[in-house]
Amino acid sequence: MSTDFLYLVEVLINGLMAGVMYSLVALGFVLIFKASGIFNYAQGVMALFAALTLAGVMEGQVPFAHLINAVFGTEIHHFGWHVPALLAILLTVGVMVIFAWAVQRFVFRHLVGQEPIILFMATIGLAYFLEGVGDLMWGSDIKTLALGLPQGGSRWIEDMTAGMGGDDFYGFFIDKLDMVATVVAIILVASLIAFSQYTKHGRAMRAVADDHQAALSVGISLNFIWILVWSLAGFVALVAGIMWGAKSGVQFSLSLIALKALPVLMLGGFTSIPGAIVGGLIIGVGEKLFEFSVGPLIGGATENWFAYVLALVVLVFRPQGLFGEKIIERV
Amino acid sequence: MLYREAGDFKTSYAEDNQTFPIKFDRWRYWFVLAVAYLVIPFMINDYWANAIFVPFLIYAIAAIGLNILTGYCGQVSLGTGGFMAVGAYACYKLMTAFPEVNIIVHVILSGGITAAVGAAFGLPSLRIKGFYLAVATLAAQFFLVWLFNKVAWFYNYSASGQISAPERFVGGVAVTGPNTEAWAKYMICLVFVTICAIIARNLTRGTIGRTWMAIRDMDIAAEIIGVNPLKAKLLAFAVSSFFIGIAGALFFAVYLGAVEVGEAFGIQKSFLVLFMVIIGGLGSVFGSFAGAAFLVVLPVALKLIGVDLLGWPTDLVSHFQLVIIGALIMFFLIKEPHGLAQLWRLAKEKLRLWPFPY
């Protein structure tokens, strides 16, 4: 096999892995959009907030330490204990559930029946709010997530594949973390599907996604389902936050992954979970391939916009995305 | 008592059709203009110009532009930052290529160039609707910023990748460059704002504005009653981008003087202008001003209170700023989804009945 071809394969594989990471974020969007029609821009910031909380809890940081010090002139920052990872994750899930309840109770309950654009704007406000709260609670310095996830390229795969090409081919470089992310994403999607197919609340959730009024009339509590969905989205955000946080540190730029997930959503359709996965994979591969083949010719760093342009081109032919529900317009 | 139509008889069609049918409103309008043109320029200093007035006026133009597209024509756009960048870079290229031409011509021409770019990016709006369109306009945002970063021709191959405005004069007074006086910056922005607002107001209450609103309310129905959606939508994109391009050109040439594209015209700018439009009120020229004023004054006020009054560290105050802006946006959307303009409208209704509300 020629070296060029092998490099291409490597790019493809890495693109697929990157796509999985995008899908993780996109999943949270789809969950909320399906159930409540809210296009949740805050999903990226939720991932940031969840990762910050996890890191803070594990380190035993005092929440709002900076603020307390500024107001009372004290000098506190740590409780002086370390929380084991599993317990910390459970605590963070708890925080995300409380967050879901608060969002539902104080914001979106008052906005039921508003136009989608208003709801969207509210989530942008929520994103700002949550970002500020996260920084106030845990400080804005870069944190590392010490969860013991594997890092760096996989030696084993590199050695296994080194013999395939010529002398200047050193084997595939594949990030171990990306592989873990792929496995986690598969488990996550499988359990989400199992949850929505085989449990009572999962079915209720699908009913609400289908038709609010019909769901209400058979006795499903919309309020409860919405809290449930926001909690689930918070959980997905936590998983995405762990994966992205382990990759590049927990910092502000984590919230920008929302912008990476948007073209994935457009491509796959806002209402489809398989769409989020397939869209993520297509974007991941397309982006890497484009950067690999065309990028050097036009100055590189095309990853910022290529996904959007690709999604735009697809949308011109399929306005609802690849897997979205067909948009039927009536007068 | 003063705020009444009663007794204010119209004797010609021109009078009947005027922008402000109530006499008090007309006085108020002339009063505001008089203060803006005759009082503020003599009182303004560098701090007030740079912190409040110049950004307010420039954002007001951008907000009017976005309001035309989003508020009147119903097409949500997140590409404002990118279109402002087009205006800024067009202005820079024109300023350096034709130094002898007046800067005012350059600013208007950059508006025109931005209008063309905006119409091109508006083409997908014929197929794509709602959120899909909002996300699609992000393509414009990211692509344009990348383009201005990567293609050296746009920044005249300068080593830093920045563009900086050379000194230009209007009637012998410097309006760009480091030696510009506060009142000159203020006046040139004010003139552009006034003209833009008058144009926008009259466009939106005429035939064109009505076709836009028909498209916004229901595009299929509009098509059936004879509105050409292609023309209406593209025109909205073009007019909106024209204003936004002027705002971008002024933002670069008059306000900042030197610009790095990713920093000055990033996605945050798009959101900021969208917030202005939403908080001010969708579909209202007054709302664009109110929203711009609100979001320009708020951070300055918060900084004054937090840093200077309470003595907190700056980073803490900037975090608080995020929390407060976020909370205010949500609060406004819950209490008054139609923005400050609606509060203003309600106040006027109340005023008309005052002091006998029944």
Q: What's the mean pLDDT score of chain A? A: 82
Rg of chain B, Cα atoms, Å: 21 Å
User: What structural class results from the helix and strand content of chain B?
Assistant: mainly alpha
CATH class of chain A: Mainly Alpha
CATH architecture of chain A: Orthogonal Bundle
Helix/strand/pairing class of chain A, anyone? Answer: mainly alpha
Mean pLDDT of chain B: 89
In terms of DSSP E residues, the strand content of chain B is: under 5%
Secondary-structure element series of chain B = HHHHHHEEEHHHHEHHHHH
Biggest beta-sheet profile of chain A: none
Q: What is the number of helices of chain B?
A: 15
The global form of chain B is globular
* Beta-strand proportion of chain A: under 5%
**Regarding quaternary structure, how should these chains be classified?**
heterodimer
Radius of gyration of chain A: 21 Å
- Indicate the percent of residues in helices of chain B: over 70%
Which spans of chain B have pLDDT < 50 for at least 5 consecutive residues? Answer: none
Task: Give the gist of this structure.
Chain A is an all-alpha fold. Chain A has helices spanning 3-36, 43-59, 65-72, 85-106, 116-138, 155-161, 176-198, 200-210, 212-217, 222-248, 257-268, 273-293, 303-317. Chain B has 358 residues and is an all-alpha fold.
SSE map:
The complex is a heterodimer of chains A (331) and B (358).
Chain A: H1 3-36, H2 43-59, H3 65-72, H4 85-106, H5 116-138, H6 155-161, H7 176-198, H8 200-210, H9 212-217, H10 222-248, H11 257-268, H12 273-293, H13 303-317
Helix pairs in contact in A: 1-7, 1-10, 1-11, 1-12, 2-4, 2-5, 2-10, 4-10, 7-8, 7-10, 8-10, 11-12, 11-13, 12-13
Chain B: H1 13-16, H2 23-43, H3 46-72, H4 80-97, H5 103-122, H6 130-150, E1 163-164, E2 169-170, E3 173-174, H7 182-204, H8 207-217, H9 219-224, H10 229-256, E4 258-259, H11 261-264, H12 267-280, H13 285-309, H14 314-335, H15 339-353
Helix pairs in contact in B: 2-7, 3-7, 3-10, 3-12, 3-13, 4-5, 4-6, 4-10, 5-10, 7-10, 8-10, 12-13, 13-14, 13-15
